[in-house]
Write a structure and sequence with these properties.
- By secondary structure, the protein is an all-beta fold.
- It is built from no helices and 39 strands.
- The strands form 9 sheets. An 8-stranded mixed β-sheet has the order 9-10-11-12-16-15-14-13, with no helix packed on it.
Length: 417
């Protein structure tokens, strides 16, 4: 266990029984464990303090959550038990339409008790801590029966893991579960590439699709594209490049009817994204950035000093190259000089970028703690701070408007100066 964000670790108290459940709450030192014993249930903090509850109703607990002097225990299909720390009393919580459902996950956030249901009805449900009024949080895809596998809270809201539908997020003040897309890099990263009057849509895990000019009809881009576990796509004029999870880079010059497959150049599952600039093809990988000047036949390292960087995305321009990487944002000048992104602002955490566009000599970048703008190609920055509950993820400029997508599913727009 750790109480200082990983700086120091120590063993959890022993004697917790065979079935141990854990979580994070202020009871009393930030971490607690719960264990099922032969006679009941023990809640123990990392400092050694413990409270024991006994009773026949405690039989098969799947998760616990603590709020002040109350402990909530998910009893699988037996509902949720509410335990009073001071008195030791155990009372069943009113379940309403959730009666008999498999409650697998619990979390407490902003005075609500959240319950994730596995199997059966599925989905995420919540009730106020001081009332019995359950409600279902609908997801933005209209899916039903989503099986919830984990819950974790942040100051922005509740993150939700599901068995077949990836990670979801419910923002503070909202009752809608939204899919976390590019918020989780290298998971379900998507890209949009204009292609003639159409748009090529790439889902990293699902495949490559194309829409009509109105964006209403979508179909697989190519029936001859070899199946793969992962995809990354970019377009150069009439050429379409696809990198797959097996390490191959394929090229089509006939709208996906046929493909030229070059020898495997990359190890399996190292490719993050592809992009092009002035007839150069850039591959952002977990081992830096690779560049091809012959449409994918051969590759060289952009900068061997950066080959240990896990680069998610490369933004290219004649006057500046921006690398979005795990260890921060890197700026590369035309002469090859590499600089760390440093906007010289005070912030609670290290400033970072998640995306950027360069338009008419101005760099617009999203990240923490907001929207960054530079009129001298990243040498100096101004920042418009965004409340911490909102994280800007991607940017795009259409006409004279700047569009920004947030990790809660919102699309914001502002006119450019």
């Amino acid at each position: 266990m750790t109480l200082d964000h990983g700086l120091a670790w120590f063993a959890a108290p022993k004697g917790l029984g065979d079935s141990v459940l854990g979580g994070r709450q202020n009871y009393p030192n930030g971490m607690y464990t719960g264990s099922i014993t032969s006679t009941g249930f023990i809640l123990r903090s990392v400092c050694g303090a413990s409270v024991e509850f006994a009773g026949p109703m405690i039989s098969d607990i799947s998760d616990i959550a603590v709020a002040h002097e109350r402990v909530f225990c998910a009893n699988k299909r037996g509902g949720i038990l509410q335990m009073d720390v001071a008195s030791g009393a155990i009372t069943p919580l009113y379940m309403g339409y959730l009666n008999g459902e498999f409650i697998g996950e619990l979390a407490i956030h902003n005075n609500y008790l959240y319950a994730g249901v596995r199997q059966g009805m599925g989905n995420l449900h919540r009730t106020p801590l001081n009332a019995s009024a359950w409600e279902t949080l609908q997801n933005d895809r209209g899916l039903s029966g989503v099986e919830i596998t984990w819950l974790t809270c942040s100051d922005r809201g509740v993150y939700v893991g599901s068995r077949e539908h990836g990670a979801l997020f419910v923002q503070n003040g909202s009752t809608v579960l939204r899919s976390v897309s590019t918020a989780i890099q290298r998971s379900v990263v998507q890209s949009l590439n204009p292609f003639g009057k159409s748009t090529i849509v790439t889902s990293r895990l699902l495949g490559v699709f194309i829409t009509d000019s109105m964006g209403q009809n979508i179909r697989p881009f190519s029936n001859s594209l070899p199946p793969s576990s992962e995809y990354a796509v970019t377009v150069m004029d009439s050429l379409v490049f696809v990198a797959n999870g097996e390490g191959s880079v394929l090229r089509s010059n006939d709208t996906g009817r046929t493909w030229t497959a070059f020898p495997d150049r990359f190890p399996r599952s190292v490719m993050n994204t592809l992009t092009t600039h002035r007839n150069l093809l850039y591959a952002s990988t977990i081992y830096g950035v690779q560049v091809s000047a012959d449409s994918g036949r051969t590759w060289r390292s952009l900068n061997s000093a950066l080959d240990e960087e896990n680069v998610f995305k490369t933004i290219t321009h004649d006057s500046l190259m921006i690398l979005i990487a795990t260890n921060g944002t890197l700026l590369i000048r035309p002469n090859g000089t590499v600089e760390r992104f440093n906007p010289n602002i005070e912030a609670e955490h290290q400033p970072r970028l998640s995306d950027a566009v360069i338009h008419k000599g101005v760099v617009y970048a999203s990240g923490y703690p907001g929207l960054f703008v530079s009129k001298d190609y990243g040498r100096t920055w101004t920042v418009t701070e965004i409340p911490k509950v909102v994280m800007m993820r991607t940017l795009s400029i259409v006409g004279n408007e700047l569009f920004m997508a947030t990790d809660s599913g919102e699309l914001l727009a502002t006119p450019l100066p």
